[in-house]
């Protein structure tokens, strides 16, 4: 039997591998050299740094992280050491899109404007950014896409420079990996110089990685009202966000944009299947069963004289009242990790059925395009 060490906060995992592996569940902070000395495989989240310090002279030959990001894995060391690693690309893309939708509608309410009158700049157009693009176009926004790696492959037709995105967008949303070197370096991508190129009163959303935005620079921009506001789900120095920056943001959350139950289930399924393939286990099509249903899965909206944007806003915020997460985080931001580990059940749009009192086929189509069921 193979030996597996797994983060005990990976959902839906307990009981799945026991028939085929000797598995040990540990809190992330306890996944150290002694604990993994004889493990064949590690199943982790972002809080476990997999590098030479952890892995040298251990039996580990396979690492799977149940997350989109993999900057916590030293991929070069793993390559040299013959350790196979995988992440879970796209597993929580729809969850992050739901977060961005709730953020956009909250911003529009705060700013007293319609989203279809605004331009959004999407920086990074991978699994998540592509879903945000679809959302923004469905809402009638003008969309500017910035993604240099994709532009090099696909040509400049649908992409703009970062300069153009910053200069012309009313809202900038970041969906990039954290890279600290090379032409596509994203570390402190948004700092004093880039913030100065944004037009006044821009809104900034960051749900990618905290280090993509320089803390001091955004604090200055918010204090001097060069930005209208910021929505931050990720922070430098997690899990210890800067209290001054938190106080200046419009919406602040503890790195939970991708924490829908659906996204968690997808991430766990992807790493279990990858482990099964690598070690020839009979779990190649495994997926969690019995996901909790929403407390109120049916959304009834009296829509007489409502615009399409108002109806979609109501439906989105019924599935995810993002300001509740913000309020909980502000009450006790020191409990960053605890709030992540004990995050309430959040289901994505397909788990909800929408009933409109005055149905409009065009609006129903938009809701179904977002994933809602219509009744």
Tell me what the structure shows.
The chain is α/β, with parallel strands linked by helices. Helices cover 37% and strands 16% of the residues. The protein is built from 15 helices and 14 strands. The chain has a 6-stranded parallel β-sheet with strand order 7-6-8-9-10-11, sandwiched between helices. The chain has a 5-stranded parallel β-sheet with strand order 2-1-3-4-5, sandwiched between helices. Helix 12 (308-319) runs parallel beside helix 15. It is globular.
Categorize the overall geometry.
Answer: globular
Termini separation (Å)?
A: 49 Å
Query: What fraction, in percent, of the residue positions are helical?
Result: 25-40%
Q: What share of the residues does DSSP label as strand, in percent?
A: 15-25%
Distinct helical segment count:
15
Provide the structure class.
alpha/beta
**Number of E-type strands:** 14
Write down the Rg. 21 Å
Largest sheet: 6 strands, parallel
Mean pLDDT: 96
Strand order of the largest sheet: 7-6-8-9-10-11
Instruction: Point out poorly predicted stretches.
Output: none
Question: Strand-and-helix sequence, N→C?
Answer: EEHEHEHEHEHEHHEHEHEHEHEHHHEHE
């Amino acid at each position: 039997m193979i030996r597996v060490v797994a983060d005990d906060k990976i959902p839906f995992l307990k009981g799945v591998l026991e028939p085929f592996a000797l598995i040990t569940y540990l809190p992330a902070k306890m996944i150290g050299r002694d604990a993994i000395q004889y493990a064949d495989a590690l199943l982790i989240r972002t809080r476990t740094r997999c590098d030479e310090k952890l892995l040298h002279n251990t039996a580990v030959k396979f690492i799977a992280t149940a997350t989109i990001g993999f900057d916590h894995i030293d991929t070069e060391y793993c390559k040299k050491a013959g350790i196979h690693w995988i992440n879970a690309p796209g597993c929580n893309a729809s969850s992050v899109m739901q977060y961005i939708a709730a953020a956009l509608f909250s911003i529009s309410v705060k700013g007293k404007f319609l989203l279809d009158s605004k331009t959004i700049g999407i920086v990074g157009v991978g699994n998540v950014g592509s879903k945000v693009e679809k959302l923004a176009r469905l809402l009638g926004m003008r969309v500017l896409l910035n993604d240099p790696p994709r532009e090099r492959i696909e040509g400049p037709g649908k992409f703009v420079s970062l300069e153009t995105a910053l200069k012309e967008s009313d809202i900038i949303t970041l969906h990039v990996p954290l890279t600290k070197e090379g032409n596509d370096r994203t570390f402190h991508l948004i700092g004093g110089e880039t913030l100065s190129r944004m037009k006044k009163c821009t809104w900034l959303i960051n749900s990618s990685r905290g280090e993509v935005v320089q803390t001091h620079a955004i604090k200055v921009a918010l204090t001097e009202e060069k930005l209208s506001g910021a929505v931050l789900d990720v922070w430098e120095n997690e899990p210890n966000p800067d209290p001054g920056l938190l106080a200046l943001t419009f919406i602040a959350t503890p790195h939970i944009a991708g924490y829908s139950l659906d996204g968690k289930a997808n991430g766990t399924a992807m790493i279990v299947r990858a482990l099964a393939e690598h070690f020839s286990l009979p779990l190649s099509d495994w997926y969690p069963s019995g996901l909790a249903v929403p407390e109120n899965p049916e959304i009834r909206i009296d829509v007489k004289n409502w615009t399409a944007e108002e109806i979609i806003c109501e439906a989105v915020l019924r599935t995810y009242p993002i300001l509740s997460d913000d309020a909980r985080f502000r009450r006790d931001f020191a409990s960053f990790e605890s709030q992540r580990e004990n995050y309430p059940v959040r289901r994505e749009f397909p788990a909800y059925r929408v009933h409109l009192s005055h149905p409009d086929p065009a609006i129903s189509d938009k809701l179904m395009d977002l994933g809602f069921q219509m009744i």
